[in-house]
Amino acid sequence: MRVEIWSDVICPWCYIGKARFEKGLAAFAGRDEVEVVHRSYELSAGAARDAGLPLGPELKAKYGWDDAQLKAMEERVGAAAASEGLGMRHDRFVTGTFDLHRLLHLAKERGVQERLLDALYTANFAEARPIGDDDTIVDIATGAGLDADEVRKVLADEDAYADAVRADEKEAAELGANGVPFFVIDRRFAVSGGQPADVFTQALEQAAIRRLQDVAGTGGQGLCADDHAYDAP
């Protein structure tokens, strides 16, 4: 069974949703047979990478929030993160993430994609490090197992892995994703948002049943609208 996860490294619900998915997966009897694939999605496609752009003003400008609305949203997200044992700082930065997704594709080739993704999440949300800064990115990436010179080379070459990122994003659109996190299980079931762990367990169990139905010749074909049972928080 394959689970594909579209996410962005500056998306708090992706950070929280990954932790919840992992708990849901741990409770699934067939967990050892599950392959997890991480795919690219930009919350702000085309945004420039910036080393020190404060998050608060950006969110207020993007969504038209006032200070009270921003505080309420950050408190909600912070509480959700804390419930999963995750750190969440409110003085973090925002940046365009296209280059980070390109590096995640490099990390996939080197067998350390999940380590880099986790390291970027931690640096951004728990530590409020400027993940748009070259030196910070290199430090995070080398800590996850990548070679520093190779990381700098990819950052300097805007075409490196760009097609892979765009292909992921095109596929997300074709599958009906209009936000992240977006989880697709065996191209049968889709789960949107940072749902509770038991929702993921149930979705995995339903996908396992569908696989058995396929073997018996009684299953349907393809990802169906009815399978989009869960929406983002």
Please tell me about this protein's structure:
With 233 residues, the protein is an alpha/beta fold. Helix 1 (12-26) packs across helix 9 (197-216), helix 4 packs antiparallel against helix 5 (113-126) and helix 6 (134-143) packs across helix 7. Helix content is 52%, strand content 12%. The chain has a single domain (2-174), classed as 3-Layer(aba) Sandwich (Glutaredoxin). The model is unreliable at 223-233 (pLDDT under 50). The strands form two sheets. Strands 2-1-5-6-7 form a five-stranded mixed beta sheet, sandwiched between helices. A two-stranded antiparallel sheet has the order 3-4.
CATH topology: Glutaredoxin
SSE sequence, one letter per element: EHEEHHEHHHHHEEHE
CATH architecture: 3-Layer(aba) Sandwich
Please state how the strands of the largest beta sheet are arranged side by side. 2-1-5-6-7
Radius of gyration: 18 Å
CATH superfamily grouping: Glutaredoxin
Give a count of the beta strands, DSSP E runs of length 2 or more: 7
Overall SS class = alpha/beta
| Low-pLDDT ranges | 223-233
Mean pLDDT: 92
Query: Globular, elongated, flat, extended or rod-shaped: what is the shape?
Result: globular
> What is the count of DSSP helices, taking H or I runs of 4+ residues?
9
Q: In the residues, how many domains can be counted?
A: 1
How far apart, in Å, are the first and last alpha carbons? 26 Å
